[in-house]
Hints:
Shape: globular
Structural class: mainly beta
Radius of gyration: 13 Å
Strand content: over 45%
Number of strands: 11
Order of helices and strands: EEEEEEEEEEE
Helix content: under 10%
Amino acid sequence: QVQLAESGGGLVQPGGSLRLSCATSGFTMRYYVIGWFRQAPGKDREGVSYISPSGTSTIYADSVKGRFTISRDNAKNTVYLQMHNLKPEDTAVYYCARKKSVSLSFSAATSEYDYWGQGTQVTVSS
């Protein structure tokens, strides 16, 4: 059974840091692109960051570039999103997902991802 599970969310002050984890099981994670997405209250889901199967290539949304870092540990079947200098506009439910293809690209289209986690809440507030 393919599963993805996010963890690490919580309440943090502006300027603070959090590290999100996406633990996967039921498939060989090193063969897949993994993406991080987020959905804020009243807004559409947006793509945040993506990482190639090997971890050598990454893509970031302009809004998080320079602040967030995506990484993966294929031996642990886990993908991470390290977030620094968090801003109130980063408040959202964060999701990780497995891409159907092995091609790395910036896309938030849900049709390109076949399995999703249930999300973890990140709240940035003073």
